[in-house]
Here is the input.
Amino acid sequence: MDPSNIHINLRNIRKIKHMTLKEISQKTGLSLGNLSNIERGLRSPTLENLQKICTAMGISFTDLLEKSMEPRVLIRADERTRLVKENGYSFEIIDFGQPNYAFGVQVLDPGDNDSLEWIHEFDEIGFVVSGSMITYIDGKSYAASKGDCIFIERGKRHNCINESQSSPCVSFWTRCYDDPEQKSNYFSKLYKKLSPGESDSPSENAKR
Here is the structure.
């Protein structure tokens, strides 16, 4: 193991697992300052503390050298994380491990006129891949078709519907976070609510 790379790998793995330093601190008993210095390479962790950190993140010492834990370049269709799938509406998360961005695929089935409303703490940009949809942002409607883009500012209540009775609407979304900590906090809360094969309930989706 190359000691010079430990702090880089630990930081990358923590981000990919969407864990905050505060969570690691609570699980290990190590101070936030100590953990921050370790991640920045300002302090070398003892073997005992390194084991505590690995245990908290659910990894082994060997994982610190695995390239598979680095930010990803390719995500297969069946590797996306399902956020919602109900009532003619689905949304799947695509996360390459980049600190300030995540992406998603939204599918609106034909005639989906009752999709859930959302409020985010981050900006979103949507690109219509196929079909057409109407997006309501704070009550104002915007019609978008294949090739169109739409920007949704943080804090704006919004939802999308598909009035077509024959064609689904597929759109690709980019989520822009202020900093890695905001993204980690969001995903940490999200993954605590989700388990394999499950999605959020409508009441939880009303504001996220």
User: Anything to note?
Assistant: The chain has two domains: 3-69, 77-205. The domain at 3-69 is CATH 1.10.260.40 (434 Repressor (Amino-terminal Domain)). The radius of gyration is 20 Å. The helical segments are 6-16, 21-28, 32-39, 47-57, 180-193, 202-205.
